[in-house]
């Protein structure tokens, strides 16, 4: 591998001059800088980023924390990939690398983050899988590493975060179903302890009260946020003595299993059960009947997360001086056929 010393010897100039030229220092004349850069290109010189990072005290790397191997992970759909695309579109402008930090659900997430921080692997973090009371946030708030959370938490709300508008989804869905005459409306939420489930459920309860509808704990159904979970949800629903006429799903993949279980009983969404869910992947657009759902641009969400993080980092703050540190991300209702029928 060609070193700065090799370049200096090849050009017959000092090592210091070569180093300053490679780092675009102003005290090197234009001709010398061009000469050094041409030689570096011809000889295949690549800067030692590890050494440079060590000298500068930075890694030029941002970490994207996810929980993998369980329900909290996002590997079962395109969510993370589209968000990552938006993140990298911003970070690449500043020559920042993005790495995924998958923490197994079998490992303590706080301990995992402590190792990442101790090893100085990243200059900043995007945190996912936020919990109502979150030890990850409590720990990171005591460090000097900038971070932004995808999801709210009741822990140290001074940290920057962006969350999806789960309250708005629940409110609009219940209002919509109530206007169609539905009085028994179920809700399907994940069986994990993520804060989004709590927010979703609380808004569901409030919206029932607003529409003069009774809350029935039997209509709060729990399962994994995937296709199999949707199948389980439908099975639970079918076993109820007093079945609901409508259901609100917290995750788009639940609709796959729910549709499948209904079809086994010759039942159909939009005819026998009103269904409202989420739609962010191409696969979800293929549901039949079409799913009344809420969507958002995951890439734009990733862009906003990246910009929010950079706004808290001294080296990049000037580029994003007015970025909000807490933001509810809106979602758009896409009308389909799955909730079309009216109750007489």
Q: Your description of this structure?
A:
By secondary structure, this protein is α/β, with parallel strands linked by helices. It has three domains: 4-47, Orthogonal Bundle (434 Repressor (Amino-terminal Domain)), CATH 1.10.260.40; 61-164 and 299-329, Response regulator (Rossmann fold), CATH 3.40.50.2300; 166-295, Response regulator (Rossmann fold), CATH 3.40.50.2300. It is 39% helix and 17% strand. The chain has helices at residues 4-11, 15-22, 30-43, 49-56, 79-91, 109-118, 135-140, 166-179, 195-210, 227-239, 254-264, 298-310, and strands spanning 61-68, 97-104, 124-127, 147-150, 161-164, 185-190, 220-223, 246-249, 274-278, 292-295, 326-329, 332-334. It has a six-stranded parallel β-sheet with strand order 2-1-3-4-5-11. Strand 1, helix 5 and strand 2 (97-104) form a beta-alpha-beta unit. The protein starts with a helix and ends in a 10-residue tail after the last strand. 39% of the residues are buried.
Looking at this protein, list some descriptive labels.
344 residues, alpha/beta, 434 Repressor (Amino-terminal Domain), 3 domains, 6-stranded parallel β-sheet, 6-stranded mixed β-sheet, 12 helices, 12 strands
């Amino acid at each position: 591998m060609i070193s700065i010393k090799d370049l200096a010897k090849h050009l017959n100039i000092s090592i210091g001059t070569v180093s300053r030229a490679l780092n675009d220092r102003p005290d090197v004349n234009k001709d010398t800088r061009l000469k050094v850069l041409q030689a570096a290109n011809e000889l295949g010189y690549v800067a030692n980023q590890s050494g440079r990072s060590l000298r500068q005290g930075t890694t030029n790397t941002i970490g994207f924390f996810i929980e993998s191997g369980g329900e909290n992970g996002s590997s079962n759909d395109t969510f993370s990939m589209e968000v990552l695309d938006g993140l990298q579109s911003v970070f690449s402008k500043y020559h920042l690398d993005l790495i995924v930090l998958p923490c197994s659900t079998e490992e303590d997430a706080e301990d995992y983050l402590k190792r990442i921080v101790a090893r100085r692997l990243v200059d900043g973090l995007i945190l996912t899988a936020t919990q109502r009371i979150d030890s990850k946030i409590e720990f990171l708030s005591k460090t000097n590493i900038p971070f932004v959370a995808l999801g709210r938490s009741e822990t140290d709300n001074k940290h920057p975060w962006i969350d999806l508008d789960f309250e708005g989804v629940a409110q609009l869905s219940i209002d919509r179903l109530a206007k169609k005459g539905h009085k028994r409306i179920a809700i399907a939420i994940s069986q994990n302890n993520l804060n989004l489930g709590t927010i979703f459920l609380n808004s569901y309860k409030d919206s029932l009260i607003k529409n003069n509808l009774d809350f029935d704990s039997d209509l709060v159904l729990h399962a994994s946020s995937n296709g199999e979970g949707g199948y389980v949800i439908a099975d639970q629903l079918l076993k109820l003595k007093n079945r609901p006429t409508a259901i609100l799903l917290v995750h788009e993949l639940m609709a796959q299993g729910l549709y499948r279980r209904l079809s086994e009983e010759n039942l159909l969404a939009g005819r026998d059960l009103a269904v409202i869910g989420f739609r962010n992947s191409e696969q979800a657009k293929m549901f039949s009947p079409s799913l009344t759902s809420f969507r958002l641009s995951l890439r734009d969400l990733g862009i906003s997360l990246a910009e929010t993080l950079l706004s808290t980092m001294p080296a990049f703050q000037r580029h994003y001086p007015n970025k909000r540190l807490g933001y509810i991300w809106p979602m758009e209702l896409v009308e389909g056929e799955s909730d079309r029928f009216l109750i007489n």
